[in-house]
Amino acid sequence: xxxxxxxxxxxxxxxxxxxxxxxxxxxxxxxxxxxxxxxxxxxxxxxxxxxxxxxxxxxxxxxxxxxxxxxxxxxxxxxxxxxxxxxxxxxxxxxxxxxxxxxxxxxxxxxxxxxxxxxxxxxxxxxxxxxxxxxxxxxxxxxxxxxxxxxxxxxxxxxxxxxxxxxxxxxxxxxxxxxxxxxxxxxxxxxxxxxxxxxxxxxxxxxxx
Length: 209
Fold this sequence. Notes:
Elements: H1 3-13, H2 18-26, H3 30-36, H4 47-56, H5 78-94, E1 99-101, E2 104-108, E3 111-115, E4 117-120, E5 126-132, H6 139-152, E6 156-160, E7 183-189, E8 192-196, H7 203-207
Parallel strand pairs: 5-6
Antiparallel strand pairs: 1-4, 2-3, 4-5, 6-7, 7-8
């Protein structure tokens, strides 16, 4: 397998703190490895080094040789995509002075996550990040959202189901029903993320989240 594929795979696998651990295990400098694994570097990621890395990180032999086909995309319900596009449009209508991105990639170092919706300030700092789930009580979803908030510095975060606020009996009425609310909001307060009872800016009335 070529060097570039190995670089891509190791960046996808490394989590926060892993590079420091790896540099110590291989007795190589952190800054050197950081540059070596960069896609633009001239460093050749050899077969020998790949095996050493896999062993030190307790990864299966050949883990860094796998091409994109070895990681098929998770099957996504097309209806969830459609629902998310509709929500993002409503956010854009409500927050006219902010920028809406759907989806939105959150990166820091070698860690990358994807939010389903991001609300950005005019200076492109993150106001809020949203994650769509058919089960908003799922604690892993909460953990992922909190992590993305920490990574991006987002002031707010929210989990929401595709049908939040929608009453099927009133599909033609452009309104949302509180008894059909299926969303949870979180706030980053002095570096601590806490769940809050109500959405900021009375968002639910306009977006149903």
